[in-house]
Amino acid sequence: MSDPRIWDISQRLSSNTPLWPGEPELKVSRHASISAECPVNIGAISLPLHSGTHADAPLHYSSDGVASADSPLEPYLGRCMVVDARASGARIEMQDCDWSEIEGEERVLFRTYGKFPHDAWDENFTAVAPDVIARLRDAGALLIGIDTPSLDPQNSKTMDAHHEVLQGDMRILEGLVLDDVAPGAYELIALPLAIEGADASPVRAILRELP
Ligand SMILES: Nc1ccccc1C(=O)C[C@H](N)C(=O)O
Ligand SMILES: [Zn+2]
Ligand SMILES: [Zn+2]
């Protein structure tokens, strides 16, 4: 029997990765290089915690929330439903969703891009209406994921969608790359790093074919 197929749904991280406006630079550097005196190459990274494909920790939108290192991992691992939301406008609204498909799913990933913008920041990315989050939460969702940089619009001061997530103690993945993924059910694996005090963490997110 062949191994189940996997899809890498993560952005690549480099100095070219588009970042939220005002965030500090993402740098990958070489600290030491192989030479007569040094037997190895050693690198270092400096990156905003919301770079690329990442998991928000509750600490991001609540001062009482847990940091990445202290979050349970169950939400980030298990069956998920990938949804085609490319027809949505500025926000994914209640009527954009096929509720028979997603209600009761523990993890829901929304695709909004036809082609993910790897080369430029998109300030008009699609957000998610708070009542959509609330309905998924009330039906038992553990995690909401999206291929845009945030569940709330870039100019939001109130972070309403994030606060609906907080009310259900759900978790969030942002910046997913779903270009090559057909809608349907998969296994999600996207674990945040155990960074103490961190309000988010980059993840290597993958989907795996269900048995
Ligand atoms: N830098 C900001 C400034 C103001 C409001 C939001 C942000 C965010 O970074 C949002 C974030 N990336 C998110 O997890 O939705
Ligand atoms: Zn974020
Ligand atoms: Zn967020």
Automatic annotation (TrEMBL):
InterPro entries linked to this entry: KFase/CYL (IPR007325), KFase_sf (IPR037175), Kynurenine_formamidase_bac (IPR017484)
This protein's record includes keyword Metal-binding: yes
Cofactor binding: number and manner: Binds 2 zinc ions per subunit.
One Pfam family hit: Cyclase
Purpose of the protein: Catalyzes the hydrolysis of N-formyl-L-kynurenine to L-kynurenine, the second step in the kynurenine pathway of tryptophan degradation.
Family per similarity comment: Belongs to the Cyclase 1 superfamily. KynB family.
Protein's name in the database: Kynurenine formamidase
